[in-house]
Amino acid sequence: VGNRHLARVRVGGSWIACDLLTVSIGQAPAWQLPCQAGGKVGYDASTQAMTITLPQGSVHLAGAVAGTDELQDAIASGRHAAAVALSRLGHVMAAEPPVTPTSVRPRYVQPIVADAKGRDFVDFDEDLQVKDLQNATKDGYREIELVKRFTTVGMGPSQGRHSALATARIVAEATGRSVGEIGITTARPPVGPETLGALAGHHEALERRTALHARHVALKAAMKPVGAWWRPYYYGDASSAEEAVREEILAVREGVGLLDVSTLGKLEIRGPDAGEFLDRLYTMAHANQPVGRVRYCLMLNEMGSVIDDGVAYRMAQDQFYVTATTGAVARVYADMLFWNADWRLRVDVLNLTGAFSGLNVTGPKARQVLKALDSDIDFSRDAFPYLSGRDGMVAGVPVRVMRIGFTGELSYELHCPSSLAPSLWDAVMAAGRPHGLRPYGLEASRILRLEKGHILIGQDTDAITTPDELGFGWAVSKKKP
61 CB contacts (<8 Å, ≥6 apart)? Predict the structure, then answer.
């Protein structure tokens, strides 16, 4: 009896005040994990208890689960199991004999006492009584698995841990068979399987390297993890880190710099509805975007908050090349697939983030460096205006070039297949040497973008930042349907 919690119980004709009621279901080994290791559950009629047998392997039982009742027997069985396990690993151990229990206490055959009103419960999860199991056997369900499915015994949260032994005994008595013949049903979670990662060893964080990693190391770059990627923080000795960053910034402002931007997300959108698809995903209008032009992309969530940005280069009437931030590309790609599964537009989305690498050539002398390379692309001011894109060959490498800025200086991004990125890097470095080209790292890049006022999503924004709060109202088209 009680309201929000137990207050008292009636036993016979007496009331006992209490706040906890436990139910004795007899003794049974915790067989769930041993069974997952290939063990089998049996029944020992002499002790009237369940037993577990395991095949020869790397799992060994000890203590009460192995059938020992006395403390000294449990300790001895633990020593024996440890010795066997260690010897299998190649350790020389003193022999520990198998344990023979000094005493075994038989369990009760019938743990349920009949109630005068028939309220003799077997499974408290499912509110099942003895008569429910007996009726199942009378209806022809004599096998324990069929009894389980007919009555739902053992299907509650405890998954048979407090009802399996009693159920087996009741079904055995009702069908005139032994408990060993009846057996038990398969146990389900909360005892679940281990993950393969846990079994294989310690958890290892994902590490990704760009195709230019070896080039950075050769230039004595200080490599640091940024998310999953290893990126050059600056180039030079650690003792001169501040001076190295300063020189990298000056190289970009006064000459020309080279940055590895391979970690940026790269997505290709193909299909007759590619423009409409981007119109629905981003705030700018892309359906009317001319071929060969690049437009800024701003992505919002359902609340109108900024979650990512990038650029979209229209390569053809039915083809766009879209960039995303390093940390958000996986989410953006997943969102594209998710929404198109609903919209059913005629587009294909391809994630090229790992397949393509990117180099950013930036600074007042950037155009001179690119013109010095063997290329079929005209890098002149009139032929290649700001926010334009071109496809062609540079130093024998097929590239997608976009004239976009991140530093406030004249900038070109060259994207190419990752397998050819080292060759393109070497060619740009060689062409830029007469112009004082210097590779620069992440720290210089961050300072350069701060000086320009370029935002970083997630660093300069939070979960509720809107385009207007960023001063980016211009990036939200008011003419799209």
Answer: 34, 52, 54, 77, 81
For 155, other C-beta atoms within 10 Å of its C-beta total 18
Q: How confident is the model at residue 188 (pLDDT cuts 50, 70, 90)?
A: low
Q: Which helix H or strand E contains 273, and what residues bound it?
A: none
Residue 103 lies in a domain: no
321 and 172 in a common domain? no
Q: Which of these three, 129, 161, 196, is where a domain ends?
A: 196
* CATH code of the domain containing 119: 1.10.10.1100
The CA-atom distances, in angstroms, between 343 and each of 36, 132, 273, 466 are 44, 52, 11, 25
Same domain, 249 and 318: yes
The whole domain housing 181 covers: 112-196
The pTM assigned to this predicted structure is 0.62
CA nearest to 122, candidates 151, 96, 95, 143: 151
Question: Contacts from 306-311 at CB under 8 Å and sequence distance 24+?
Answer: 306/457, 306/461, 306/465, 306/466, 306/467, 306/470, 306/472, 307/331, 307/457, 308/332, 308/457, 309/455, 309/457, 310/264, 310/265, 311/402, 311/404
**Residue where one domain finishes, among candidates 196, 227, 258:** 196
pLDDT digits (tens, 9 = 90+) for 194-206: 677 666 766 667 8
Q: How confident is the model at residue 366 (pLDDT cuts 50, 70, 90)?
A: very high
